[in-house]
Design brief:
Layout (H helix, E strand, L loop, with lengths): L2 H19 L16 H21 L21 H17 L17 H21 L8 H14 L18 E7 L5 E7 L2 E4 L2 H6 L7 E5 L1 H8 L11 E4 L1 H10 L3
Parallel strand pairs: 1-4
Antiparallel strand pairs: 1-2, 2-3, 4-5
Length: about 260
C-alpha cells in the first residue's frame, strides 16, 4: 500500500471505530484488552492519534523528550466517540500539509513521516476490532490491508524493545519462523539469531518460499494480523501452526506489541 492509501485508511478506520461505539455504554468491558473498558480504549486510541499528529506537525528529527500533549479530552466518556472523530480530522489535516516522504525520526525501521501514518492506521484498526469484539460484532478487515499490517508489524517489531521488552528474548541459534497468507500473496520469514531477530527481505523470502522453515503459521491475512497482535491464538479455527513447538511458544510468549 502507498502512503496516500494509508492516509485514506486512517480516515476510514477512525470513522468505523467511532460509529461502532457511538451509542455503546462506555463502561463495557473490552475482553481483548484486559481491565479496559470502551472508555479506556477510546481514550487510548484518541490520545495516540493526537500524539502522532503532534510529532508530524513538529517534523521531529530526534526522539522526543516529552509526551505532553493537549488531548482536549471531554469530561464525559459519552463524548469520547465524537472526540475520536475530531482527532481523526486533525490527523487528516496534518497529513494533507505534510510531505510524507520527508525524513523524520521514528522508532521503527522507516525513518520518514509516512511511518507515523502507517503506525496510526494499524493502532486504530486493531482497536476498532477490539471495540467491535467487545460489542459482539463481527469485525471485518480488508485482506490486502491486513497483509500490509502483517508486514508493518513484523518489520517494526525488532525495533520495539523499549515498550515491548520481552522481544529481547526472541533469540535462537539460527531458527526460522514463517507466516504464510492463505487468501492471497503473502509470505514472511523471520530469522531468529543469537543476537536478535528480523524479517527477511522480500526478495530473500521469495527465493526461499519452497524451503522448510523450523515452524510455520498459515492463515488468512486478517487472522494472521489478529494473531500477531494477540487478539486470537494459534489454536483458533482457520489457523494452522506446524513445526517446532518450542519456537512457536518462544515467539508468541515474547512478541506482544
Amino acid at each position: 500500500m502507498t502512503p496516500n492509501e494509508h492516509v485514506d485508511a486512517v480516515a476510514a478506520e477512525t470513522h468505523r471505530f467511532a460509529t461502532a461505539v457511538r451509542s455503546a455504554d462506555p463502561a463495557t468491558p473490552v475482553p481483548t484488552c484486559p481491565d479496559w473498558t470502551l472508555a479506556d480504549l477510546l481514550r487510548h486510541a484518541g490520545s495516540v492519534q493526537r500524539w502522532f499528529t503532534v510529532l508530524l506537525r513538529q517534523r521531529i528529527q530526534t526522539p522526543p523528550t516529552s509526551r505532553d500533549v493537549d488531548l482536549k479530552l471531554p469530561e464525559r466518556a459519552e463524548d469520547y466517540p465524537a472526540w475520536l472523530t475530531e482527532a481523526g480530522a486533525e490527523a487528516a489535516a496534518t497529513f494533507a500539509e505534510t510531505d510524507l516522504d520527508a525524513p523524520m525520526w521514528a522508532w521503527g525501521a522507516d525513518q520518514h513521516a509516512r511511518f507515523w501514518v502507517r503506525r496510526m492506521l494499524f493502532e486504530t484498526l486493531v482497536h476498532r476490532v477490539d471495540a467491535e469484539l467487545a460489542l459482539g460484532l463481527g469485525p471485518e478487515i480488508d485482506p490486502d490491508l491486513a497483509a500490509d499490517g502483517v508486514a508493518e508489524f513484523l518489520t517494526n517489531l525488532p525495533h520495539a524493545t523499549l515498550f515491548a521488552p520481552h522481544t529481547a528474548k526472541l533469540r535462537a541459534a539460527d531458527r526460522t519462523l514463517r507466516f504464510t497468507r492463505t487468501d492471497g500473496d503473502g509470505d514472511w520469514l523471520i530469522h531468529l539469531r543469537p543476537d536478535g531477530f528480523g524479517l527477511a527481505p522480500a526478495d530473500a523470502t521469495a527465493t526461499t518460499a519452497d524451503a522448510d522453515a523450523d515452524a510455520t503459521v498459515s492463515a488468512t491475512a486478517a487472522d494472521l494480523l489478529l494473531l500477531l497482535y494477540g487478539r486470537t491464538d494459534r489454536s483458533a479455527p482457520g489457523i494452522t501452526a506446524s513445526g517446532d513447538e518450542d519456537l512457536l511458544d518462544l515467539w508468541f510468549t515474547n512478541s506482544a506489541f
